[in-house]
Amino acid sequence: MLDSAPYPYAQRWLLSLPLPLLSQGRLDSMLELRHGERVLEVGPGTGLQALQTAPQLGPDGRLDIVDIQQEMLDHVMSRAVQRGLTNIVPAQADAHHMPFENSVFDAAYLVTALGEIPQPEVTLTELKRVVKPTGRIVVGEFFDRHQVRRATLARHANAVGLHVNRLIGPPFSYYAQLAPCRPGGSGGR
């Protein structure tokens, strides 16, 4: 009854609950963040990851957050102001049509969001477009009715020229790092 996609702002408290095995430490190990990088988060919810990721980018780095719901963006930005974070930039947009140039991000991530977006392959295509060819794309998924299972993620990724480069966590709560497939190859870097 409370599980709709995307989660409405009225249910934002659900998005502030840390999920087992989808820790910030695990996300950090997959993102491999460096000071000065420009990073994208799609579907930040209430900022559970954004508020911990942005400081790691340093004063010269930038975290862009994209959500289809302006209320969620406003919520994250209010929390960012309270914490003195000035390197988070919000954009209200659909994950199928992101307002960014090609190859501008060093990394991008979505945590429990891909399964809530219709046509995940379109979203993955957009991420591949806006992330540098040497960048990292990380998908975090937790067991709920919107979860994108590992095999399904691999199928969607392969369909758009990406492959699963690394996985951590069990099937019910995992992070996957995606990378572009080599032309004419069967995946791998």
Structure description:
With 189 residues, the chain is an alpha/beta fold. Helix content is 26%, strand content 26%. It is built from 6 helices and 7 strands. It has helices at 12-15, 24-31, 50-53, 70-82, 120-130, 150-159; strands at 38-42, 62-67, 88-92, 105-111, 131-142, 162-168, 173-180. The protein has a 7-stranded mixed sheet, with helices on both faces. The chain is globular and about 45 Å long.
Low-confidence stretches: none
Distance N to C terminus = 43 Å
How much β-strand is present in the residues?
A: 25-35%
> In angstroms, what is the radius of gyration?
15 Å
**Based on CA inertia axes, which overall geometry fits?**
globular
Count of helical segments?
Answer: 6
Helix and strand succession?
Answer: HHEHEHEEHEHEE
Given helix and strand content, the structural type is alpha/beta
Strand order of the largest sheet: 3-2-1-4-5-7-6
Helix content: 25-40%
The major pleated sheet works out as: 7 strands, mixed
Summed over residues and divided by their number, the pLDDT gives a mean of 90
Total count of strands: 7
In short:
With 189 residues, the protein is an alpha/beta fold. Helix content is 26%, strand content 26%. The radius of gyration is 15 Å and the shape is globular.
